[in-house]
Amino acid sequence: MDNAELLKQLRIDRNQREESGGSGHRGRWIALGVVLVLVLVLGAGGWWWMAHRPVLVQTAVAASPGKQGEAGAVLEATGYVTARRQATVSAQITGTLTEVLIEEGDHVSKGQILARLEDSGYRASLDAALAGAQAAQAQVAQLQAQLVQARADAARLDALVGRGLVSKQAAEQARTAVASYRAQLDAQRRQVAAARAQARVAQVNYDYTVVRAPFAGVVTDKAAQVGEIVSPLSAGGGFTRTGVGTIVDMDSLEIDVDVNEAYIGRVRPDMPAEAVLDAYPDWRIPAHVIAIVPAADRGKATIKVRVALEAKDARIVPDMGVRVAFLEHKEPAAAASPKGVLVPAKALTQRDGKSVVFVVQGDVARQRAVAPAAQTYGDLRLLPEAVNPGDSVVVSPPADLHDGSAVQTPTSP
Length: 413
Prior knowledge:
Elements: H1 3-10, H2 14-52, E1 55-56, E2 58-61, E3 73-83, E4 86-89, E5 95-100, E6 107-108, E7 113-117, H3 120-162, H4 168-207, E8 210-212, E9 217-222, E10 229-230, E11 240-241, E12 245-248, E13 253-260, E14 272-277, E15 284-297, E16 302-309, E17 321-327, E18 341-344, E19 349-351, E20 354-361, E21 364-369, E22 376-377, E23 380-383, E24 392-395, E25 407-408
Parallel strand pairs: 1-25, 10-11
Antiparallel strand pairs: 2-24, 3-13, 3-17, 4-12, 5-7, 5-10, 6-9, 7-8, 9-12, 13-16, 14-15, 14-17, 15-16, 18-23, 19-20, 20-21, 20-24, 22-23
Helix pairs in contact: 3-4
């Protein structure tokens, strides 16, 4: 084979060269497309993370204005609401309940019937005693009639003796009969008194089958049901109740607080005070000291102080926890705490031309429009509405904070 033939075989055909070049060009475009997609995915993920990452914020707790008034207190102490008149009502005899006419929360008046016991035996005893008293009274009437007749007979015989028609012995016997009937009548009258006394005893025992309220109040506990046995004595087993229910005179509620003996010198009788119930922290109740109990608890090193509530309300119930602030001077009525909460002035910001605060709920900030009061309290602002005592508000909210933003406080994990 000559050189011309060899050169012809080594030459690349044009069609083959174009096919090889087109395939490489497409591969580069595909790789470039994959890279662009990855860049877009990573960019979108970064944008989403930046948009939804928690915003680090500082918070403060909204406080009630009422708590600011306690700053002038010379002493604070905790205690409980107690009732000076409280009774567990029971029957005065042992018996089985046939009716229980009370429920918890019922208001009862003095003398109102609370329950009834089985009374058939006591009713029979009362009827028998009344019948005996009536029989004794009937004997009195009979003896009175006999005495009248004896006196008439004695008078006639005395007249006949003067005329010599009857013997003196007959007249004396007639006078003896009068004296005898008079003695029998006196004895029978005493029998009537005894029978009536027995009837009264039977009546009292019968009345014991009815349980009545000793004073007006509210039923706080129903301790027995129909069919159970109640007894005024201590029950020997678990089948006898010692009480039907408990009644509390709500007008007798007061506060008992334990004051550390090191500070008891700051408290004096009739000293003004303010009480705040744990259940209603925004309600300041005017009060005053009734007495300092002259006895100390050596175990707790405290002295009991009785405090009177100057306002009665159905929300106050026995055994509620209460905080008492003893005041040097009684605040005038006009100094009542304003409505709303106090928040730092830096918690207020502007959004769309309106004053707002951000309240943290869980890990989310919620925007609330507010209208601050004109009155200021140093670095605090009064918000009459929209925020509740105890809410956490964001202090110095960032510009990018908006309603629904995830937030994180320095103490949050």
